[in-house]
Design brief:
The chain is α+β, with helices and mostly antiparallel strands and about 200 residues long. It has a domain of about 120 residues. It is about 30% helix and about 20% strand. Strands 1-2-3-5-4-6 form a 6-stranded antiparallel sheet. Strand 4 and strand 5 form a beta hairpin. The longest helix has 19 residues. It is elongated, with a radius of gyration of 36 Å.
Length: about 200
Amino acid sequence: MRVSNHPGWLAAIGLAVMVVVAACGSTPASSAPPTPVPTPVVTPDPHLTEPATADQVFDALRRAHLPLSVNNATSGTPNSPVVKRINAAVENWPLIITEYRSSAVLRTTAKWDPSKPPVQGNAPYAWVGLNIMIEFGPVTGLLAAPDATRQKEAADMIAIVDPLLWPLEQRSVVPIPTKTATPPPAAASPSPAASASAAP
């Protein structure tokens, strides 16, 4: 059989061989790139640690755009149980934020007992968390249930300071529910003797 020397025929054979070789050596088409996993958003813990400052609490109330005005602030002496007291007002109702040297000093000095209701001479609302005491309302006049507007203002304040100072204790004419649950008690670490006896 006679084979033609036609150059087109040879080019066609060469092209066919190249296509076969290329098909055998090629990699499959890549799939779509994987979707990146979103980075989890870490919510910062707003809780303050003792000793908290009156300024921290006041700044949180101010940033929340409460109708807040400041009358004055006083500082205690180096030996005073009170570090700082901020005298402010919310819609003309007194707001006093007192920073004590510690929570123990607060309880002793202020004779704080949340189980007792407020009496004449106490503010209608008082809350304690860490070493901070917050008093809202006048301390003179008839100690009666505040109206709905004052109760809402007190609830607005609790919503702001509760996450900062929990667990909050209160002594109020009309108690305001707190929103932050009391933290669970820390698990007691086992004693060395118990750990040794439990070891195999």
